[in-house]
C-alpha cells in the first residue's frame, strides 16, 4: 500500500466520518478507518475498507493506526477529548493533521499549545476545517480580499432545520466553556444573554431573527485576520430543533445527504464600505467532507510544505478554494 494514497480517518464510522471516507474513495484515496469502537469498524471492513481500532488513550495503538498514512483527518468528537491525542500522534508520525472541531476551546488549544511543536515536526495542522469553522473562515477571508484590516466581520448562518447527530449532542454536553467573540480587537466572553438581531439573508431564507452563536470561526478568524469586531449568529429554527431531545438524527435521502438547506452569509465592513460572501447548499454534515478532503489534498500537493498550525483562510487561497467547491458541493457568491 502506497503511503502517498493512504489517509487515516479517525472516527470513520460516525455520521460525518462516513461522508469523509466516501469522499476520499471518490477522489482515489485509500481511507484507513480508525476509531475507538471495533464493532462499528467491522461494518466498514465489510465494505472493503482497511480498519485499525485504536483507543484515544492508547498512544501505541494510535501510532499503529497512523502508520504508513500520508495524513490524518480527525472526525471524532468531542474534540476537547480527541484533538490533543490525535495531534500528538500526527506529530510522532510527522504527517498533516486536520480536524472538524466546533468547540472553540479545542481549536484555541491547537493554536496556542501546538504551534511550535508542529513546526518542529515540519508538518501542517489545520483545526476546525469543517462546516462552521472552516467555511465561515474561508468566506470571511474571501470577503476581506485585499483589505488588511476591517471594522467588523459578521457571520450569519441560516438552517431550515437541524437534526443533530449523536456526536453533535455529545459535543454540546461536553462543551461547557464560555463562548468568545472579538470586540475592540480582543477575544472576550460572549454577552449574556446572547445578542439578538434581525438579518436579511439572501434567498431562500430572507429576513430572519438571529442570535449570537459563536463557534470555531471566531477562533480561526482571530488567528489571522485583523478586525475590531467579529461576531457570529444563527437563525432560531435550528436552535429550537437542537434544544429538543426528541429531534431525530439526520434523515438521509436517496443521494445519501439530508434535505437540510443551509446558507452562510458573511459581511465585512471597513470605513463605510461593505463586502459580502455567501455559501448556500445542502446538509451541513455532508458538505464538511469535501471541505476537509479538499484541504488535505491541497496540503499534500503543496511542494512548499508550510509548517505550523494554520486557519483555513490563512494557508489556502480562500476565494479559489470556495470556487473549486462551487457548484458541485455548494453555491459560492461574492458581492
Overall geometry comes to globular
Number of distinct helices: 12
Elements, N to C (H/E): EHEHEHEHEHEHEHEEEEHEHEEHEHHE
CATH classification class of the largest domain: Alpha Beta
Task: Report strand %.
Answer: 25-35%
Based on CA atoms alone, the radius of gyration comes out at 19 Å
- What's the mean pLDDT score? 96
Percent helix range = 25-40%
Distance between the termini: 46 Å
Main β-sheet: number of strands, strand sense, barrel status?
Answer: 7 strands, parallel
For the record, the CATH architecture of the largest domain stands as 2-Layer Sandwich
Descriptive notes:
With 335 residues, the chain is of the alpha/beta class. It has 2 domains: 160 residues, NAD(P)-binding Rossmann-like Domain (Rossmann fold, 3-Layer(aba) Sandwich), CATH 3.40.50; 169 residues, Dihydrodipicolinate Reductase, domain 2, CATH 3.30.360.10. Helix content is 37%, strand content 27%. Helix 1 packs across helix 10. The chain is globular. It starts with 5 loop residues before the first strand and ends with a strand.
Amino acid at each position: 500500500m502506497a503511503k502517498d494514497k493512504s489517509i487515516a480517518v479517525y472516527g470513520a464510522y460516525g455520521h460525518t466520518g462516513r461522508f469523509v471516507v466516501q469522499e476520499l474513495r471518490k477522489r482515489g484515496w485509500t481511507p484507513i478507518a480508525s476509531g475507538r469502537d471495533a464493532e462499528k469498524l467491522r461494518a466498514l471492513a465489510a465494505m472493503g475498507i482497511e480498519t485499525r481500532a485504536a483507543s484515544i488513550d492508547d498512544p501505541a495503538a494510535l501510532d499503529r493506526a497512523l502508520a504508513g498514512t500520508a495524513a490524518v483527518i480527525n472526525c471524532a468528537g468531542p474534540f476537547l477529548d480527541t484533538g490533543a491525542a490525535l495531534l500528538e500522534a500526527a506529530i510522532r508520525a510527522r504527517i498533516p493533521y486536520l480536524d472538524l472541531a466546533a468547540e472553540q476551546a479545542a481549536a484555541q488549544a491547537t493554536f496556542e499549545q501546538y504551534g511550535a511543536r508542529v513546526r518542529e515536526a515540519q508538518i501542517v495542522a489545520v483545526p476546525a476545517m469543517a462546516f462552521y469553522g472552516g467555511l465561515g473562515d474561508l468566506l470571511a477571508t474571501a470577503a476581506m480580499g485585499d483589505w488588511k484590516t476591517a471594522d467588523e466581520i459578521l457571520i450569519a448562518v441560516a438552517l431550515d432545520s437541524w437534526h443533530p447527530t449523536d456526536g453533535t449532542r455529545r459535543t454540546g454536553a461536553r462543551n461547557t466553556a464560555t463562548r468568545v467573540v472579538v470586540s475592540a480587537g480582543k477575544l472576550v466572553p460572549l454577552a449574556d444573554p446572547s445578542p439578538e438581531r434581525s438579518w436579511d439573508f439572501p434567498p431562500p431564507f430572507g429576513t430572519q431573527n438571529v442570535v449570537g452563536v459563536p463557534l470555531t470561526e471566531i477562533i480561526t478568524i482571530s488567528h489571522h485576520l485583523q478586525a475590531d469586531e467579529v461576531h457570529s449568529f444563527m437563525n432560531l429554527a435550528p436552535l429550537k430543533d437542537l434544544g429538543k431531545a426528541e429531534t431525530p438524527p439526520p434523515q438521509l435521502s436517496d443521494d445519501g445527504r439530508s434535505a437540510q438547506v443551509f446558507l452562510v452569509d458573511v459581511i465585512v465592513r471597513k470605513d463605510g464600505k461593505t463586502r459580502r460572501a455567501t455559501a448556500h447548499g445542502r446538509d451541513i454534515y455532508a458538505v464538511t467532507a469535501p471541505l476537509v478532503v479538499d484541504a488535505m489534498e491541497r496540503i499534500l500537493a503543496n511542494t512548499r510544505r508550510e509548517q505550523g498550525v494554520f486557519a483555513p483562510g490563512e494557508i489556502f487561497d480562500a476565494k479559489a478554494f470556495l470556487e473549486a467547491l462551487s457548484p458541485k458541493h455548494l453555491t459560492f457568491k461574492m458581492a
